[in-house]
Amino acid sequence: MPVEFELCPGRRIGGSNPCFIIAEIGQNHQGDIEIAKKLIRMAKDCGADCVKFQKSELEHRFTKRALERTYISPHSWGNTYGAHKRHLEFSHEQYRELQQFSREVGIFFTASGMDEMAMEFLHAIDVPFFKVASADTSNIPYLEKTAKKGRPMVISSGMQSMETMRCVYRTVKKHNSNFTILQCTSAYPLPTEHANLRIITEFQKEFPDIPIGYSGHEGGISVSVAAVALGAKVVERHVTLDKSWKGSDHAASLEPGELAALVREIRTVELALGSPVKQMLPCEASCHKK
User: Fold this and answer.
1) What is the dihedral of CA 234, 239, 243, 245, to 10 degrees?
2) pLDDT score recorded for residue 188
3) CB–CB of 209/1 below 8 Å?
4) What are φ and ψ of residue 261, in 5° steps?
5) Amino acid 3: pLDDT
6) Distance between terminal CA atoms of the chain?
7) Given this model, what pLDDT does residue 1 score?
8) pLDDT digit string (tens) for the chain, length 290 residues
9) b or e along 67-102 (b: 16 or more beta carbons within 10 Å of the residue's beta carbon)?
10) Percent helix, strand, coil in the chain (nearest 5)?
């Protein structure tokens, strides 16, 4: 099988195709749909290919006891974990509104289905691909049900071992050939020394028939740009309008100027990678003549 496939309509990843850049909005919208729309427009203006949210069906994902437990944190939006999560969770109708807004802006829209019911909802609204968050990557029954839907999949690998990722690969491959695995370390923000970009090349050896990508939570853009130089065909980064905002993901997110710089530098690196054929080039002719 070729190491490329169509992730979104008209947009292939892998091979010689440009790196696919996902702006992870997640829950950095603060529970405000107008902020969510500003983030979508910002991602488009900065040159990202896709925006991604996180969808949960809270009563299905969590037990009653978990939702009712006291939740005291500088990042809390409620006195209980349930109140906190409900504040940040958009309704089905709001998701459809954001999907339509993304369509009007001209950027692909998807979400991580954080539980099976959420995945079913995302399938119903026809997202172009499913994102599997690191926390769900070792959930084999979930992976099987998601893979059987037949949509392309982007699977993060945070907190997993190589043996687990081999199991993930085998599980998904039985039902769906169109998927990519992202090197990821689940720390927010991520210390640079734990990005472990060499795992990208190890994944390429382990899984030579699928594209490999990178999901980063580090500060700045250098590490993510380096991931592309190592062959990452998908790059996912959290985005925000203001890193100082309330919420645990903002500190690991890119503000507009950083996202624009990331896109620009990724495209520069892709251009610089050029050809693997070593020969004298036309641009060297004048030096050669001298």
Assistant:
1) -140
2) 92
3) yes
4) -65, -40
5) 86
6) 48
7) 44
8) 458 999 999 999 999 999 999 999 999 999 999 999 999 999 999 999 999 999 999 999 999 999 999 999 899 999 999 999 999 999 999 999 999 999 999 999 999 999 999 999 999 999 999 999 999 999 999 999 999 999 999 999 999 999 999 999 999 999 999 999 999 999 999 999 999 999 999 999 999 999 999 999 999 999 999 999 999 999 999 999 999 999 989 999 999 999 999 999 999 999 999 999 999 999 999 999 99
9) beeebeeeebbeebbbebbeebbbeeeebeebbebb
10) 45, 20, 35
Q: Would you state the pLDDT for residue 107?
A: 98
Q: What is the CA radius of gyration of the chain?
A: 20
Residues in the chain: 290
Could you list the beta-strand ranges (E) of 59-136. Answer: 108-113, 130-132
- Residue 36: count of CB within 10 angstroms of its CB: 24
DSSP 8-state secondary structure symbol assigned to residue 115 = S
Which of 266, 267, 259, 244 is closest to 39 using CA atoms? 259
Q: Considering Cα of 121, then 125, then 127, then 128, what sign does the dihedral take? A: positive
The bridge status of strand 20-26 relative to strand 130-132 is unpaired
Neighbours of 135 (CB within 10 A): 13
Rounded to whole angstroms, the Cα distance separating 33 from 99 reads: 12
- The set of residues, in sequence order, having a beta carbon less than 8 Å from that of 223 and lying 6+ positions away, is 192, 195, 197, 216
Compute the distance between CA of residue 196 and CA of residue 256 in angstroms, rounded to an integer. 26
DSSP assignment, residue 149?
T
* E-only strand ranges, 217-276: 234-238
Cis (ω within 30 of 0) for the bond into 189? yes
SS3 assignment, position 146: helix
